[in-house]
Amino acid sequence: SEGTFYAFANIKSVNLSSEIFSNDLLNNQLIATCPGVYFGNNGEGFVRFCFANSRQNIKKAIERLQRKFNN
Description:
The chain is an alpha+beta fold.
């Protein structure tokens, strides 16, 4: 994105709370996110990804996400 280095992603289709989803990504895929509920009740069902990192690390994280959700 040209405007920011954050993405607030909708995860409602996975049927997990934003905290559980974030903890799962951290513990099993080594991807740190911020649960949307941390931004208030309306943030539930979303997670925030931060792209303030190297392209190489972002690519690794995307590959890990793809492996998780393509299985």
